[in-house]
Amino acid sequence: MHNVWPIFKRELRAYFDSPIAYVVITIFLLVTGWFFTTNFFVVAQADLRVVFGIIPFTFLFFTPAITMRLISEERKTGTMELLVTMPISDTAIITGKYLASLALLGAMILPTLVYAITVALLGDMDPGPMIGGYIGLLLMGAAYLAIGTFGSSLTESQVVAFIVSFFLVFVFFLLDKVLFLLPIWLVTPVEYLAIEHHFQNISRGVIDTRDIVYYLSLIVLALYLAARSLAARRQP
Amino acid sequence: MIDISHLTKLYGDQAAVDDISFKVERGEIVGFLGPNGAGKTTTMKVITCFMPPSKGDVTIGGYSVLEDSLEVRRMIGYLPEINPLYGEMNVVDFLRYISELRDIPKERRGARIREMVDICGLGDELHKDISQLSKGYRQRVGLAQAMIHDPEILILDEPTIGLDPNQVVEIRSLIKELGRAKTVILSTHILSEVDATCGRAVIIHRGRIVADGTLAELQLDQEGKAIINLELLVEGNGVADRLGQVEGVAEVREVYPDEAKGRNFIIMADVGSDPREHIFKAAIDAGWTIIGLMKEVRSLEEVFHQLTMDE
Question: Which range among A14-18, B172-176, B215-219, B285-289 shows the weakest confidence by mean pLDDT?
């Protein structure tokens, strides 16, 4: 598993050697910044509830954009042949690449701490929802990215990878928005599967193992499927 | 060292490689020849664990590509046909990345990279992005990548493609040099390459091996018989019959009989024998004047063409 490190490093550098990292971070900050300023200065609320409310939606577009090239690009250019004939397990390849996308997500969220600091300095902030909100964002983003990594492992076209990943995360995003359509006995299980539902729990400042278990199992499952899809070419 | 046994690779219903078997011993340089689409690249992709065989197995130093894929990959250096490289990396960063993936100990990485840069002549291109390199330099980077961990086995798919004639000569002599200590399989459809670098050739056509042997062996007749061309100044009948009784001669055919300029006989030798000495002595005993006695050497091109021609 020590081979994860070089893959992680190369992948992260590839993000910053190309425009992807800069475009993604800039646009993400513009969008969240707009919601933050309008809410904070106009409505004069000392919290980030509106920002945390909009981020799960923006993640629908940003995380597939981050992950779409991860595996597709190497399949397209043929460097995957080089990588999989190195003495490295498929799991290590997927893990290294996934962690690099997670690091980029971290770099994308990090500047929003400025908003949090502004709120803390200017108003009377409740630290619980703030800390919970950031932990929730990271966990939820990590789950989105794992699904995106799987999406990227399916095809050599980055566009297809984007659309498939977007569709998959959109389904998880939508689940708790359509609960009113469902028979009552289905509401609780479907709600448990919904990706934003657990974020809302955590961002209230309540860190429950059920929510953490949900995100971790979703991540492990998606990465497992990605590794299987990478290994599929080894099938006779 | 490399043992390919009953390897079959199917794409759908079609067999790209159909039940081929051959062994490569340590220190051999084997040329893997065949027309485009014959199954060379597929075979190499199985050996390097990029794809599994549909049937059969390949073992490298006792490790199977199916069971011990990681061990096999550790022992092999591979230059794929398309020579995929990360365009946005520069040469040094790329080689460092590969050396990390290859588990070269940290303290030896710098030395290995320097050595590869020297051997492959990359000194002036170190800090250029790979996407800016010419095809020949990209090929050198590919070779450096394949050899950086000092592998016991090198699998090179068309290693000299895209190089200029000087580079071709350099790379060939490099491969030859390496082949003293290593086991090399290189695929090519350039026949002179096999002549220049390989001790042995395996010719594959439509997924099957149609010839396997040293170059000298391949240049014999298909059944392994040497062909000798004899010109005599002699008159009278019975010369061919007399020649047929010489030790080591299997068959004699007279062509272009012209008693004034010399008569021409095509002699097929017995398998594995060279009867020129006996023919010479027989001619002296019989009082014939030999004006030509030559063992025919078929060019590799002829051999290749004959073996891979479709009816």
Answer: B215-219
